[in-house]
UniProtKB/TrEMBL annotation:
The keyword Oxidoreductase applies. This is Aldo/keto reductase. Residues 16-275 form the NADP-dependent oxidoreductase domain. It comes from the Bacteria. InterPro entries: AKR (IPR020471), AKR_Detox_Biosynth (IPR050523), NAD(P)_OxRdtase_dom_sf (IPR036812), NADP_OxRdtase_dom (IPR023210). It holds the Pfam family Aldo_ket_red. It comes from Streptomyces rubiginosohelvolus.
């Protein structure tokens, strides 16, 4: 059975099945109790890795997690992302990896999450208009100043990961990846070789996994759901994979979390490995 834990950066232990907080509703005040309840239930279920970002509600997602969970359990890691900002003039989101913007976003995240240090901070996207050395150099400076513990990347190629590692230690990579979308398999292989945490997002291809007859058949054999089969496959596929499925529903959260207990036999794993292509 796959290991249930992973040490991010070699020293920060988390459960391998995490929670992506992006879908927690934050726009309407009446939705806030539901968002808080889901976040708290995630921790009750033993989840110790929660992923958020400045872009999720322009910081509102970070604030709802703090309201729900602060003071945080000692074993809980909330990781956030910076590098995408919203224009005050147009309201549009755009990449911004300029040092002054990254520093400001980090300070805002510290305030919203009510912490003195972000144990894992990920660059949401590489800004092509700003030298990578400037972007990662800024995050390295923030790490050296004690505001950041470890640095991660999101949506990068294997070549970009290699370039980044020449500048600073990289503890995690967050790329789109699931059973039927394995475009970033080379990035996963690079992470596995370097013991870098790989946090796949869109873990079940927008819930369409059951459209695949083979997935549905295996789910029926295991008395599980297609979503659980896909999450179990991710956990079994590589020891560095830390899936972060997201939901705004406690029922779906409980369904996702139960996938950690699903055991795939070698025969079932082989059948799932043979599935390819978009869902």
């Amino acid at each position: 059975m796959p290991s249930t834990t992973f040490r991010i950066g070699g020293d920060l232990p988390v459960g391998r099945l995490g929670f992506g907080a992006m879908h927690l509703p934050t726009e309407k005040p009446e939705d806030r109790p539901s968002a808080i309840a889901v976040a708290r239930r995630a921790v009750e279920l033993g989840i110790t890795l929660i992923d958020t970002a400045h872009m999720y509600g322009q910081g509102a997602n970070e604030e709802v997690l703090a309201e729900a969970l602060h003071p945080y359990p000692k074993d809980l890691l909330i990781t956030t992302k910076v590098g995408v900002v919203r224009s005050a003039e147009t309201g549009e989101w755009a990449l911004n990896g300029r040092p002054e913007s990254l520093r400001a976003e980090v300070d805002h995240a510290l305030r919203r999450l009510r912490v003195d240090r972000l144990e894992l901070l990920q660059l949401h996207r590489i800004d092509p208009e700003t030298p990578l050395a400037d972007q990662l150099g800024t995050l390295r400076d923030l790490r050296d100043a004690g505001k950041v513990g470890r640095i991660g990347l999101s949506e990068v190629t294997a070549a970009e990961l290699a370039e980044a590692r020449e500048i600073v230690d990289i503890a995690s990579v967050q790329n789109r990846y699931n059973l039927t979308d394995r475009e970033h398999e080379p990035v996963l292989a690079a992470c596995e070789a370097a013991d870098i945490a790989f946090l796949p997002w869109r873990t079940v291809a927008w819930g369409k996994a059951g459209d695949r007859a083979e997935v549905a058949a295996i789910a029926a054999e295991l008395d599980a759901t297609p979503t659980q089969v896909c999450l179990a496959w991710l956990l079994d596929h590589s020891p560095v994979v830390l899936p972060i499925p997201g939901t705004s529903s406690i029922a779906h959260l409980e369904e996702n979390t139960a996938a950690a207990d699903l055991v795939l036999t070698p025969e079932l794993r082989a059948r799932l490995d043979g599935i390819a292509g978009a869902a």
